[in-house]
Amino acid sequence: MTEALLYAASRAQHVAQVILPALNQGRTVICDRFMDSSIVYQGYGRKLGDCVRVINEYAVRGCLPDITFLLKLDPEIGKNRIKADEQDRLELEKLEYHKAVFQAYQGLEHHYPERIIGIDATGSIDEIGRKIREHIEKILDLKDK
Amino acid sequence: MTEALLYAASRAQHVAQVILPALNQGRTVICDRFMDSSIVYQGYGRKLGDCVRVINEYAVRGCLPDITFLLKLDPEIGKNRIKADEQDRLELEKLEYHKAVFQAYQGLEHHYPERIIGIDATGSIDEIGRKIREHIEKILDLKDK
User: Fold this and answer.
1) Residue B62 burial by CB count (10 A; 0-12/13-18/19+): exposed, middle or buried?
2) Which of A25, A137, B20, B109 has its CA at 20 to 30 Å from residue B59's CA atom?
3) DSSP of chain A, one letter per residue?
4) ipTM attached to this prediction
5) Domain map of chain A by residue range?
6) Residue A5 and residue B55: Cβ atoms within 8 Å?
7) Nearest to residue B104, comparing CAs of B34, B56, B45?
8) What is the pLDDT of residues A104-121, one digit of tens each?
């Protein structure tokens, strides 16, 4: 619970001091991980439940992403991609934890099909980048019309 | 909001690592400030509203005090009692803030008359201590019967 509240505190500050000021200047914000990550890592992975969503909704105060890319990869392969000496508190968790996180992410993808776009992340960085770029170009194209 | 979430994170860790283990050993816990303080300082003082209560209820997970002593003092006198070089982020706030906090504490006292015991804190440390001791002895006496 302490971990979940610290992530939410960090997110509240990030939204207030970085994201909202940028949006208010009319800029586009790209953010690596947001409240979906807290929901799956703490809510599902740590089994804290729905309170993680409630706490994060207070933290972001209505500032939510228009679009989210979910890089999908078998948790076993994903875990092997992380360098051993670079693992943080969450990445060090057992495979079982990462499987629960992956399943929860797929649940969110299913629940928010318009916002969350799943991307096959088995390929190279270039391939993944190209897929994301295609989606973004499609969205920008739609917005222009 | 970041401040409120950081206090809640600290409280969650304090409850999990200090208070609950002590209670489970059958010990009596005396704590200087708890979630009432967050409700009044952040909920009312910072005008964050009821979310502070919700967040703190998640943080303490049902671990609530049996009895709370509220040391009551005119905010103007209270502020003068704090040494200038010892003021923290909250104590540095304007008198108006401290008046809102005091009013909110009185609201809680009114709302929880069985749990919160108001103590006149205009006297000396010894006098205040004696008043608290009298109340505690009364409670312990009642428990024995």
Assistant:
1) exposed
2) B109
3) -HHHHHHHHHHHHHIIIIIHHHHHTT-----SS-HHHHIIIIIIIT--TTHHHHHHHHHHTT---S-EEEEE--HHHHHHHS-GGG--TTTTS-HHHHHHHHHHHHHHHHH-TTTEEEEE-SS-HHHHHHHHHHHHHHHHHHHH-
4) 0.88
5) 1-64, 66-145
6) yes
7) B45
8) 999 999 999 999 999 999
Task: State whether A9 and B6 contact (CB < 8 Å).
Answer: yes
Distance (Å) from the C-alpha of residue A46 to the closest C-alpha of chain B?
14
User: How many whole angstroms separate alpha carbon B90 and alpha carbon B98?
Assistant: 9
Supply the pTM of this predicted model: 0.90
SS3 B74: coil
Q: Which two tokens stand for residue B92?
A: 């540095």
Closest residue in A to B49 (Cα) is A58
Segment B95-111, tens digit of pLDDT: 899 999 999 999 999 99
Q: Is domain B66-145 classified as CATH 3.40.50.300? A: yes
**A45-56 pLDDT per residue, tens:** 999 999 999 999
Residue B27 corresponds to which amino acid? R
